[in-house]
Design goal:
eight-stranded parallel β-barrel, single chain, alpha/beta, 11 helices, binds 2-phosphoglycolic acid, TIM Barrel, globular, 247 residues
């Protein structure tokens, strides 16, 4: 089997030419474990700027896109445009998109379908809020979110699922390795039952939420954690250590 470890950096709405140049220098110096796939989620506006500054082995992701190729959708960006300027990936369904920009499960699913059809690889994000966890609804929520994504995905080859408990994002409150592993294992079981054994065995599931150099190794040692989606720490030199977390 062997799911290649995959670490994504999610820069969010951060960076300018100067700081992106510095960050790309750090990533170029590495060294980065060649057995880990690395992707950086760059603000769309800076994709053409960042791409030539990064090693060719690092994939470049946008952090959002729309669900159709072109047209009267003021302010939106299509997967075709992202590909045209050099993006390889797009992060979709991030909890900030869901909560702040009111993206529904259905819209996230439609975006995933269109991005894949246009040839982008997709990091699809799911995760429960603190209220949902405390109400014992974690599995119900992540299965529902994954179920809607699954409705729109025919071929999972170019998909990575990112489990990001909302209460752990940007809060410094990481899920314990056990808490994360528990949800990842439940998702794999769900995938085996609802999608296929093959997808369950091969789909990479990243953990995201306050991953740092200090906690990444123990998280990476969990059998169903296949990488990370990293926010805050992806803007710092410690991102290199996180990329190299898998022993
Ligand atoms: P964080 O963000 O690492 O800053 O918690 C993770 C994310 O939002 O993808």
């Amino acid at each position: 089997m062997g799911r290649k470890f995959c670490v994504g950096g999610n820069w969010k709405m951060n960076g300018d030419k100067a700081s992106i140049t510095e960050l790309c220098k750090i990533l170029s110096a590495g060294p980065l474990d060649p057995n880990t796939e690395v992707v950086v989620g760059c603000p769309s506006l800076y994709i053409t700027f960042a791409k030539p500054l990064l090693p060719a082995t690092i994939g470049v992701a946008a952090q959002n896109c729309y669900k159709v190729p072109k047209g009267a959708f003021t302010g939106e960006i299509s997967p075709a445009m992202l590909k045209d300027v050099g993006a390889d990936w797009v992060i979709l369904g991030h909890s900030e998109r869901r909560a702040i920009f009111k993206e529904s499960d259905e819209l996230v699913g439609e975006k995933v379908e269109h991005a894949l059809a246009e040839g982008l690889k997709v990091i699809a994000c799911i995760g429960e809020t603190l209220e949902e966890r405390e109400a014992g609804k974690t599995e119900e929520v992540v299965f529902r979110q994954t179920g809607v994504i699954a409705k729109y995905v025919k071929d999972w080859t170019n998909v990575v699922l990112a489990y990001e408990p909302v209460w752990a994002i940007g809060t410094g409150k990481t899920a314990t390795p056990q808490q994360a592993q528990e949800v990842h294992a439940a998702l794999r079981k769900w995938l085996a039952e609802k999608v296929s054994k093959d997808v369950s065995d091969n789909l990479r599931i990243q953990y995201g939420g306050s991953v740092t150099a200090a906690n990444c190794k123990e998280l990476a040692s969990q059998p169903d954690i296949d990488g990370f989606l990293v926010g805050g720490a992806s803007l710092k030199p410690e991102f290199v250590q996180i990329v190299n977390a898998k022993q």
